[in-house]
């Protein structure tokens, strides 16, 4: 066992003693650094608070000045005009103008409706001269009789097929195709005499008109 008298000659004892001294120095240094940080933080908080108070006081003071308020209002109006929006002042001016025009119209209407005292009655308008009687219309020529007009036959769509019919009468024949209907119609009109053959499209519109005989 090592006694206190020979500690100076014991390397392990010297190492432990030096380690304790170093730890104490580090602890003291850390305490001092923490105190400095606390003091710096407190100082920084005071500086920030003071600066904030100065900015707030300056803002409140200058916002109360009429010139600054006018500049700010002009800036807002300019921005609203730039984006195409009316300012409340423009709306008020427009409302005042509308009221003024309304009063003017009412005044003119009242003046027009009011009849001045002693005003002469308007003269009666002269009666218009009698219009001359129109000349008798010429009697139209007699229309040709129905029996004198040439007969008209039609090739027209009928259901899923085609029909051949004299105008104003029921179909004389029906066919499955337009080609067969046209052939039957041509044979009919060639044997009939003076007449016309009107061929229609599927939608009913006229495709062509043919004349046969002396029609």
Structure report:
The protein has 4 helices and 5 strands; from the N terminus they run H-H-H-E-E-E-H-E-E. The model has no long low-confidence stretch (mean pLDDT 77). With 215 residues, it is α+β, with helices and mostly antiparallel strands. A hairpin with a 2-residue loop joins strand 1 and strand 2. A 5-stranded mixed sheet has the order 3-2-1-4-5, covered by helices on one side.
Give a brief rundown of this model.
The chain is of the alpha+beta class. It has helices spanning 11-63, 66-82, 88-113, 178-192; strands at 151-158, 161-166, 171-175, 195-200, 206-212.
What fraction, in percent, of the residue positions are helical? 40-55%
Number of helices: 4
Average residue-wise pLDDT: 77
How far do the termini sit from each other?
157 Å
Number of DSSP strand runs: 5
Order of strands across the main sheet: 3-2-1-4-5
How many whole angstroms does the radius of gyration measure?
Answer: 59 Å
State the assembly state of the protein chains. single chain
Largest sheet properties? 5 strands, mixed
Low-confidence stretches: none
User: What fraction of residues sit in β-strands?
Assistant: 5-15%
Structural class: alpha+beta
Q: What is the helix/strand order?
A: HHHEEEHEE
Mass-distribution shape: elongated
Please describe the structure with a list of short key phrases separated by commas or semicolons.
215 residues; alpha+beta; five-stranded mixed β-sheet; 4 helices; 5 strands; 15% strand; elongated
């Amino acid at each position: 066992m090592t006694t206190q008298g020979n500690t100076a000659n014991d390397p392990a004892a010297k190492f432990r003693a030096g380690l304790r001294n170093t730890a104490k120095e580090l602890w003291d240094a850390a305490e001092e650094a923490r105190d400095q940080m606390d003091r710096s933080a407190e100082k920084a908080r005071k500086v920030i608070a003071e600066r904030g108070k100065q900015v707030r006081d300056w803002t409140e003071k200058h916002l109360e000045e009429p010139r600054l308020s006018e500049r700010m209002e002009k800036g807002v109006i300019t921005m609203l005009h730039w984006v195409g929006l009316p300012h409340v002042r423009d709306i008020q001016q427009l409302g005042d103008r509308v009221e003024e025009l309304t009063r003017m119209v009412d005044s003119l209407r009242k003046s027009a409706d009011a009849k001045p005292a002693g005003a002469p009655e308007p003269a009666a308008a002269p009666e218009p001269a009698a219009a001359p009687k129109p000349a008798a219309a010429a009697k139209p020529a007699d229309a040709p009789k129905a029996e004198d007009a040439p007969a008209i036959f039609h090739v027209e769509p009928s259901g899923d097929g085609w029909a051949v019919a004299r105008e104003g009468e029921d179909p004389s024949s029906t066919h499955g195709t337009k080609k067969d209907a046209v052939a039957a119609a041509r044979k009919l009109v060639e044997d009939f005499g003076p007449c016309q053959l009107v061929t229609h499209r599927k939608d009913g519109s006229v495709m062509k008109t043919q004349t046969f005989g002396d029609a």
